[in-house]
Amino acid sequence: MVYFLAELGMMNYETLNYCPSKIAASAVYAARCTLNKAPFWNDTLQMHTGFSEQELMGCAKMLVNLHLKAPEQNLKGIYKKYSSSEKRSVAVLPPAISLLAATAI
Q1: What is the mean pLDDT of each run of 10 residues along the chain (105 residues)?
Q2: Where do the Cyclin-like domain residues begin and end (predicted)?
């Protein structure tokens, strides 16, 4: 799931607003939200990435929005790749829509 979200981000100009380490950390956060892995962010993840949950929220929301729109995009290579059983079909899992409605902590 993290790889899928990160690759979606790499194919989108919006990610130019974020440094690569924030995109990577946000992909982890968004993946944990999508897969309902509680807690979504903890002190260990913050220590290793250097980002708080609040700092990741904007980028994570962008990644979830890209996941939401992936089936309808013109460039579907990444979506098709991660829809395969070899990649555990993570692309077809429902995106973390609740994250889109969440306000920064």
Answers
A1: 96 93 98 96 98 97 96 91 96 94 64
A2: 1-65
Dist CA 67 CA 18 (whole Å): 17
Give the residue carrying structure tokens 């899928």. 4
User: Looking at residue 91, what is its pLDDT?
Assistant: 97
Strands (E), 11-99: none
What number of other Cβ atoms are within 10 A of residue 55's Cβ? 18
Residues 7, 82: Cα–Cα separation, whole Å? 10
CA distance 36 to 48: 21
In the numeric block, the tokens 């829809």 are attached to: 83
